[in-house]
Amino acid sequence: PCPPGWWTSGFFPGSLWYLYEYSHDPALRNLAEKRMAILRNQQFNTNDHDIGFKMNCSYGNALRITGNADYKTVLVRSAQSLVQRFNPTVGAIRSWGNKDDQSNFLVIIDNMMNLELLFNATRLSGDSLFYQVAVKHANTTMKNHFRADGSSWHVLEYDPNTGEVTKKRTQQGFYDSSAWSRGQAWGLYGYTMCFRETGDSAYLH
Fold first, then answer.
1. 110 belongs to the catalytic site
2. Contact criterion met (CB below 8 Å) for 170 and 97
3. pTM (2 decimals)?
């Protein structure tokens, strides 16, 4: 299994919860809880944006299925960690790098997947800050990340002091002007989810 800090670490326990929901097999629930315990300290991780991938897939499904109030606390704390990476001047959550880096501000299309944690946290806590950050990030990404044909860049570089876009490129796609299929899927899911959460037809369009 991957270490808790790795971006996919919440996928396995999240999948176990889906299997438990379908089968009601207590062995699957026990294994899901065991794997989630390894992730628990990630709620305090402010060093990367993948906290949504890790915690909403695992603890989010666990809370939805079991109603355990302890999972609610973990999810809200995870969202608090994620919003520490938000820069109001840029209007986005930093993807890679130290949250206090003043030299460059990287935002990747993958980050749309982490907004679901923030919408969830507003429902759980009543604190609208999480919702507001999610909407601002989605709007900034919609404005800057997409080409005229609807395909997206993987990585945008911003000046963290002015919010200006300084570069558009790819890290994992074929070349800077290509459409990276996995990133395109992140955007499709992210904006479908944003429409579900806000009702804003701009996201659906």
1. yes
2. no
3. 0.94
